Amino acid sequence: MPYESLPRYSLGFFPTPLVKLTRLTERLSGPRIFMKRDDQTGLALGGNKVRKLEFLVGEALANGCDTLITGGAAQSNHCRQTAAAAAACGLSCHLVLGGQAPSIPEGNLLLDQLFGAVIHWTGELRKGERIPEIAESLRSAGRKPYVVPYGGSNTTGAAGFVEAVRELTHQLSRLGESVTHIVFASSSGGTQAGLTVGRSLFGLNCQLIGIGIDKGASGDVPFAEHVLRLANATAERLRVSDRFSASDLAVREEYLGDGYGKVGDLERHAIHLVAQTEGILLDPVYTGRAMGGLIDMIEHGEFSREHSVLFWHTGGTPALFPYARDLIEGESARR
Ligand SMILES: *Cc1c(COP(=O)(O)O)cnc(C)c1O
User: Fold this and answer.
1) 151 lines ligand 1 (CB under 6 A)
2) Domain boundaries in the chain?
3) Which of the residues 29, 76, 218, 332 is marked catalytic?
4) Mapping DSSP to helix (H, G, I), strand (E, B) and coil, where does residue 46 land?
5) Are 159 and 233 in contact (CB under 8 A)?
6) Which fold would CATH assign to domain 49-151?
7) Which run of H or E residues covers position 312?
8) Active site includes 76?
9) Class of domain 3-47+153-334
């Protein structure tokens, strides 16, 4: 069905701001840079998952479910936003998290607990591998769980980013602006799949460049192939006639560094630079890495001054605090 007909539950504040980063453009002697502020989606310190959750929670409520269950890493932004969404519409929430319970919860994990989520620790498994088993035990206890997939990335969640493209095209036309490229962190693929479908549905003429964040994000399937399948499944479900091929999907995987959640010079430098030139906070796991990639591409001459690049800020800032040590290291020496 068309995406406007899908059940949707309002959770965030939209449209999110679209801002111009003129000081960063000047500092990098680069293309014009815009930023879409999805760190300001309004629910529980913001982030891109709020867009997906409006459709996922809409579906859960339409199906008469009483519990949301999802999983991720201990500092998962997706889990924190899901816990808040559950609280906001009166559902219970179970989170299946990688790692062990720390003595004092920090960052996103602290917020999960404030929102009243029940946490199941699963050690090495950080992608919700035990969700089916926990959902089954909730069912035998008489609950009606709704499984929110890893990262909220299925065709329902991706609809949130189809809608996001509609929002963006309105903002751009109101400002009389256009963009040639959109750069963003890509990890479970729903954001990129939704943007891909939305771009073709709303005729947005620009290149999408996903910066890969997590090497093993899609299991055995290469990540670009995973996003491609999700984009085509989303288009089919939402009755968008276009289908996509590998050439429609750019995923840059050269910025993976030491792996998921590991802060290196690339992320550290990007976070300090954007904070100090624009007063805007990025996050250590996703947007710091994606912005590091954008800065590197600008420094290597991939964009000219005639280009207009939109960086989609996907959130994640609550994870800054548990990463304090990694963010300060080496930076004092540089200044
Ligand atoms: C989940 C997340 C992403 C990646 O979005 P996907 O749809 O999973 O690819 C990017 N940035 C932040 C801050 C996130 O929490």
Assistant:
1) yes
2) 3-47+153-334, 49-151
3) 76
4) coil
5) no
6) Rossmann fold (3.40.50)
7) strand 308-313
8) yes
9) alpha beta
